[in-house]
Amino acid sequence: MHTDLVAALDIGGTKIAGALVDGRGRILVRAQRPTPAQEDGETVMRAVEAVLGELHASPLWQDARAVGIGSAGPVDASAGTVSPVNVPGWRAYPLVARVRDAAGGLPVELIGDGVAITAAEHWQGAARGHDNALCMVVSTGVGGGLVLGGRLHPGPTGNAGHIGHISVDLDGDPCPCGSRGCVERIASGPNIARRALADGWRPGPDGDTSAAAVATAARAGDPVAVASFERAARALAAGIAATATLVEIDVAVIGGGVGKAGEILFAPLRKALAEYATLSFVQRLAVTPARMGTDAGLVGAAAAALAGRTDTAAMGV
């Protein structure tokens, strides 16, 4: 019998992943469905129910004592609702109640996907052993989460640490969120590629215009590609430095597709951070790549379920 077994859901615009996870963070059973992101809300929920149904079919399900959900946001953990930007059929959707019903009444914990990845990195990854950390996901968007005083700090609605929408350019481009000059508008993968294309970068014969292709060009020395990554790095550095100045983090962990670009991102990021993080109490701030990979959302959702949002210190997440 697994006394610390929980179910975990990682819900994004592309896929809905599910797992049964034990108290050491080991994934014992997996299930996954594509997200029917452009369909109506009930169709999306049926995909969630199919994932839960597959987990329920495992003999291990009888030991599950809670369900943790890490969802694309915005989420509202206080109301139990989600409104993912890239799932238009879900607006203030009562996901916690629906999952509780589908899971036979088990307790359900909801956190944003950035907070879930933070929980995973603090429990088992690059932020392990740090009491004050910012963990970021730099991908199609830019999200994040905070660990403060050794505890996961999701905030009242589960969105604390959402660094992607700190403004770092007062006269910058309008952001789809309604603000201007946000970190995400400069540093996300699509915006790195958009900037490079606007400044004259041209993709290779395969026509790949992704940020990964820009990173490849930057590694080969293309000056426009290098400049686009340097600008993204400055935006990230400004946001990280602002966060560190407010709450005194000592490590910033960067994951997501853009985070995999390696030194093309991290070298200019460290250089820019030295220019922005100048006060004595933030000068030793370290920046490091994430370690948890594609399972981070599931492991973090499991961490939330195991600990409960009211007592995340119980298991060191």
UniProtKB/TrEMBL annotation:
Matches recorded under PROSITE patterns: ROK
Enzyme class name: transferase
Keywords, alphabetical: Transferase
PANTHER family per the UniProt record, alphabetical: N-ACETYLMANNOSAMINE KINASE (PTHR18964:SF169), ROK (REPRESSOR, ORF, KINASE) FAMILY (PTHR18964)
Protein name in UniProt: Glucokinase
InterPro entries per record: ATPase_NBD, ROK, ROK_cs
Homology family: Belongs to the ROK (NagC/XylR) family.
SUPFAM superfamilies for this protein: Actin-like ATPase domain
The keyword Metal-binding is annotated on this UniProt entry: no
Organism: Streptomyces griseomycini
One Pfam family recorded for the sequence: ROK
Transferase among keywords: yes
Top-rank lineage group of the source organism: Bacteria
EC number: 2.7.1.2
Gene Ontology MF terms: glucokinase activity
